[in-house]
Every structure is written in structure tokens, then in C-alpha cells.
Amino acid sequence: MKTKEVKIGNVVIGGGRPILIQSMTNTDTKDVRGTVAQIRALEEAGCEIIRCAVPDAESAAALKKIKDSISIPLVADIHFDAQAAIAAIENGADKIRINPGNIGGKEKIAAVVNAAKAAHIPIRVGANAGSLSRDILQKHDGPTAGALIESVLENIRTLERMKFDDIVVSIKSSNVSVCVEAYREIAKLVDYPLHLGVTEAGTYHMAVIKSAIAMGALILDGIGDTLRVSVTGDPVQEVYAARDILKSCGARKSGVEIISCPTCGRCTIDIEKIADSIERFTQNIKMPLKIAVMGCAVNGPGEAREADIGIAGGRGEGLLFAHGEIIKKVDEFDILPELRRMILELAKERNEE
Ligand code: SF4
To answer: What is the Cα–Cα distance from 63 to 266, expressed in whole angstroms?
Structure first.
């Protein structure tokens, strides 16, 4: 769905542009060196917008040095503290994320909104199932999609009444069906860009499953302008998961897609080890490549006809193939080095095109 365009530092989201990957640091924002190192690792993995928690004035001051050392837009995440929000804007935040309900009353919200207006930066407002007001929870009998919608519309209208419309919206729940219902509904009601996310999604395995179901459904509906996969753990994993969700939905074509078979009684070589190793080897390749790792020559090349290159296992050997055609046979122990060589060669060729 085509949303309004919003500029965040050196990127523009919305207006039917590609969905951008966002993540959030889990370092202490005051630790400039540690935070910059984490942002660079995230950037290397494919993160396109980064958010840092700004709980106090000292963290807001650190944003200036952080911003000078990174090249992706920097978003400040603020709760409860209007002064920290204003300081974050003064220190170069490209966008701020606030909850108008907890910033301290109308005057303080107006001060933050005026600072954002003067700096020409957007504000993300959102509803989160974990921080809905008691009134809304009572009215809707819990954190339902309706409760989230009412809360986020309240936040949006607060900013609009202050003649501010440089807005990004999020509406998050840890419940997948509530999350999907709420995003589908809000997409019909406003034309602001939507930041997708399942909140408090859990540790890696569950976070990826919940996020893939919710965001996959929304992205396939044409909803979403940025996304974050929330993972309890290393945020670099969030970025890889977000990349894979976008790739699986056909929303972005960057990065390597591994097509590997589940193996069966015909397989006589260690396909799992080869697939894992190739996945790690290609993790930071940004250009689109399809690599097939198949257990046998009976169905291998045929099943992976769409792959750029691939391997099909045989007894103590492997058949290397490209675009479904067998190229040569190699000894089992030469499969990995040979595949890596072919991948690098193809990546170089495509880079030069
Ligand atoms: Fe079995 Fe071969 Fe298919 Fe893999 S490619 S699942 S080994 S038949």
C-alpha cells in the first residue's frame, strides 16, 4: 500500500519504496565506542536504519559522536523524558521514537514536536500491547487489535493537532494474530509509513517464527515500509532474519538464498555440514545469488534448476552444476573449497557487470 514519503537522514521510506531493515543496539548508548562497533557490525549485516535507547541526557549527548562515526540514519528511542528527546534532536538524531502518553503532558509534547519541526525530522509514534493505558485496556477488555488502534490513533491525533504530520507509525503486540489484525486495520485508516514488528518476540527461534508469520502476511498484503525482527540476543541476528523474511516474500532481492534438500536415504555425503558452511560463508554477500546444496544427482540439479550454482551429492563425490546443468564431478573433500571458489568467482563477475 502506498504510504506518504518520510525522510530519515539520508534515506526516504514510504511511497512504495523498498522496505528497509531496522535494528536496535543493545549496548549502553553512553558507551560510544561499543555502540559504534555494534552499529558497524549491524550495517555490515545489512541494517539500514539504527535505533538507540536514550534514557537520559548523557545518552542524548553521546548521539553526536555516534552519528559522526556511522553512515546509516540514527533514531533515538525515548520514554518519559521530554528533555532527553529535545537533547537527542539537538545532537543530530535523524528521527525520534516517542510515546506521547508518557512524555509528561501537553506542554512537554509540544516542546518535543516543535524541536522535531525545527530540525525537520520525523517522529515515530506507536502503540505497544505492553504499555496501553488502563482506560483503553478496560474499554477493550485487554490488549486487543482494537485497543492498539485506539491508542495509536490517539497518539497520531495528538501530533496532528500540533500541525505535525512527519509521522511514522508502529503498532506492536507479541501476539501474532493481534499484531497482523492491528496493522491491517491501521493501514486502512492512515497513510503514514508503517514500521513493522512483533514486540517481545522471544529468543532467536521463536522470534524468527513469530516475525516471519506476522511480517510475512503483512508484506505479502503490501503493508510495511520498515521492519525490525526483535530478538532477545545479538541484534546482528535480527538483521539476518529480517533480510531472509524480505527475501522469502520477494520484497527485496539482495543476499544469498540457499536451496538445500532435507536429505533422504539416497544421500551419502554430509549435506547438512556443506549447507551450514556455505550459509556462513555467504552471510555478508549482498548481491542476489541462489545456491543449491542437494543430496543426490537423481533429483538434485533438476530440483534446483533455478539456482545459479550448486552441488548434488554422489557416493564419495559431488556433481557441481550451474543453472541445472552438470559441470563437473569432484571428490567429496573438494566440494566445499570448489563451491567457495565458484561463489567468489560468480560474485566478482556480477560485481563487474
Ligand atoms: Fe533425497 Fe536426493 Fe531429494 Fe535430497 S535431492 S531429498 S537426497 S532425492
So the answer is: 56
